[in-house]
């Protein structure tokens, strides 16, 4: 990975590489930052294992420099939200033991630092004068200038991982405990190679991504486009007005984001050719797009090309991609396109009109090396034939395109019926005036699970009321699938990545 970056950085030395709300660096400047960090990350632990770096910075140049320097020295990077709580830190520390922690400042990251072992090496982006007797604090500028601490030995932990591991990506687990996905250098290279032809079409073009860089989608977007010569502009604060100004400033030709972000831009009348004349395409990831969203984008921005991207934390980057050309009708909610080069799907999937949806299996070099079970203990993600079972349900049509039908773990049991909440959510999301819909099952002694639909309506006069929502459900769903409760909310709680926070919702509804 580092050699890819090195060749690109030398070829485009003065081109902007990465920006966020506060900082901007060229490829040449980013390379200088990387080279200054390498001696710190080059330290080996006593058993010869490479060090583990807990990365808790906002997305942008500094985050990217740490990641690339770690790749150069074969260290292992673990990105987490820069505002992680002490409670969340205990979950992470149940699986890993970091050797270096990178934060904005010790003052701003107290909840991250409190549960750490004593005498940890802390790299602080902002200069700090606060005395910290518990940890060894290094200032970023000192490291950039080759000052004290650059080559001092770290206090080594005892984390061990499979050979070639360079990244641990945390993702939500079904039990609430995060899953630590082990990603290798080979996985990252496979991602770049599988998507090379597609990414090359963006070479030199400015792209905008408001998905957090610690998130699997946001992190992949940065590496994919940065290593194909495209300046990447990141947003950490979810302020659409500021984002619009930056997209205009840099003449961004592409936006890559979650569906919720595009819904917000549409509601604020910001996704329009008059405001974004350079924009050529949008890529929707992190969750399937519904027909209503695609229809609304096409209505506001008729000449825009729309890409739908399906992937998982366990499958680095893109598994399938669908291209919707300007004026093309999108009539299949859940359709996410064909496998990209280098990706194979299990062929047991049936067409959408034949039989039940089955679990989607993936075989590819992008399937992660493994998953942490506890410290120093991991499991492979693939079966004897090299396939990874995703936990997602789907169909494969005659053209080889994948249709998503929800997750196995999300199926509800109501009065003996097995119900797919994705079907109900799709119906509601495609209703004009609805921004988001989440369907949950809440335990009930009589029926097994109550079906509860949580609705976030758009801020306009066309939003349906409770009676209209019940009528829509009754007209389109079998009686056993009807929600027992429909809850209209001002805003559905979301994770830092913009996805609906189902755990939080469930606690609110109990």
From TrEMBL:
CDD domains: AFD_class_I (cd04433). Residues 423-499 form the AMP-binding enzyme C-terminal domain. It holds the Pfam family AMP-binding_C. GO terms for biological process: fatty acid metabolic process. Signal peptide: none annotated. Keywords: Ligase. Residues 9-345 form the AMP-dependent synthetase/ligase domain. GO terms for molecular function: medium-chain fatty acid-CoA ligase activity. SUPFAM superfamilies: Acetyl-CoA synthetase-like. PANTHER family: ACYL-COA SYNTHETASE, MEDIUM-CHAIN ACYL-COA LIGASE ACSF2, MITOCHONDRIAL. Belongs to the ATP-dependent AMP-binding enzyme family. This is AMP-dependent synthetase/ligase family protein. The lineage of its organism: Bacteria, Pseudomonadati, Thermodesulfobacteriota, Desulfobacteria, Desulfobacterales.
